[in-house]
Amino acid sequence: MTADDLRETSVALAGRALELPELARAGTVAAYVSVGSEPGTRALLDALRARGVRVLLPALLPDNDLDWGVYEGEGSLARVQHGGRMALFEPAGERLGPDAVTTADAVLLPGLAVDTRGMRLGRGGGSYDRVLARLERAGARPALVVLLYDSEVVEHVPEEPHDRPVQAVVTPSGVRRFRQEP
């Protein structure tokens, strides 16, 4: 995709996500800063912040768990290189601890794909599996939403016993909801 394509999809994705009732009524949203060819999240982060939403962003810990900090605008991000992996943009300010995510009303998750059941395929580091397990242990039930391109919504992804489905996927062309088992 060209830089213009990425910018356009970022704006479209933000517009679709901001229509979600789960985000409209959220006081705190845990999100992430997109990197590489991921669907862009910056426009969405700024729009949420402009609405008065407290936006939490992750900071990768050495054990692949995630700490959290508050997003205060683009100037509050630091580019952090993690070993031989890609550099991530993380909050430069105070760290709130891994449990801060349990205060979120909605959690926006990255992924490589999501299937028709709402099962998300991550990058394999287990960071968000830990987040989802932490939410479950705390009894927190935020809306779980994955942000993807349209082509990344597929028929089936591999699943492990610890995997949990998301409630919705937002793509530049729309929102797809998944029925959750009681």
UniProtKB/TrEMBL annotation:
Cofactor or coenzyme needed: Mg(2+)
Keyword Nucleotide-binding in record: yes
Reactions performed catalytically: (6S)-5-formyl-5,6,7,8-tetrahydrofolate + ATP = (6R)-5,10-methenyltetrahydrofolate + ADP + phosphate
GO molecular function, one term: ATP binding
Gene Ontology biological process terms from the UniProt entry: folic acid-containing compound biosynthetic process; tetrahydrofolate interconversion
Superkingdom assignment: Bacteria
Keyword annotations: ATP-binding, Ligase, Magnesium, Metal-binding, Nucleotide-binding
Residues engaged in binding substrate: V33, E38
A Pfam family this chain is assigned to: 5-FTHF_cyc-lig
EC top class, as a word: ligase
Annotated residues for binding of ATP: R120, L121, G122, R123, G124, G125, G126, S127, Y128
NCBIfam families on file: MTHFS_bact
Family indicated by similarity: Belongs to the 5-formyltetrahydrofolate cyclo-ligase family.
Protein name, as recorded: 5-formyltetrahydrofolate cyclo-ligase
Organism: Streptomyces azureus
